[in-house]
Amino acid sequence: MNLIITCARHLETETRREITDILEKMGDSEPIISITNMSGILTAETKIEPIEVIKKIKEMILDEPWCIRYCLRVIPVQKITETKIESIEDGISDLIKLISNEESYRISIEKRNSNISSQELISNIAKKIKNKVSLEFPDKIILIEVLGNKTGIAIVKKTDILSVEKTKRSISE
Which domain holds residue 34? Predict the structure, then answer.
């Protein structure tokens, strides 16, 4: 998986159809979209670079706000690991080079179907990073998306995560 898509509960089938159509329009004729056993969560595996997908979806929303009806958030995933503190730390160690020395960061964890300790995870990861922390306006976000026994990790800018609602709201402002 290289994308996590959230939707309203019980609209997973419609969301799968919508994200499949979007990815096909972008040039991936065979994306693998899976409805997880967690209500309102889908995963996608696409040939297209995940952050590029999000940029293009934002452009679509700005052109035609009504073209996206079911997807609520689209979250990029750069690495998948098993849901164990050591595995997640190793995965982040591989991606840490995406944060330059002068950039600030924040660690964001979303857990679903897991009782892994967020505090332990945050403190272990923070020890490895010398950069300044900024909870309000970080240059980069270390995103940890726990989906049961699998965890998706990404180090991205705030703009690399798509909230359809916020994007639509920004049009009307």
Answer: 3-77+160-172
Q: Say if pTM beats, i.e. exceeds, 0.90.
A: yes
Same domain as 106, residue 50 = no
Q: Are residues 125 and 60 in the same domain?
A: no
The enclosing H or E element of 143 equals strand 140-147
For residue 160, give the DSSP letter.
G
Nearest Cα residue to 56 out of 14, 20, 32, 23: 23
Residues 124, 146: one domain? yes
Q: Determine the 3-state secondary structure of 71 from DSSP.
A: strand
Instruction: State the Cα–Cα distance between residues 159 and 27, nearest whole angstrom.
Output: 22
- Taking phi over 0 as left and psi of -120 to 50 as alpha, with beta for the rest, 172 belongs to alpha
Asked if the model's pLDDT at residue 134 lies above 80, the reply is yes
What's the pLDDT at 172? 78
What is the total count of domains within the chain? 2
Per-residue tokens: 160: 């690399």
Tens digit of each residue's pLDDT (9 = 90 or more) over 38-77: 999 999 999 999 999 999 999 999 999 999 999 999 999 9
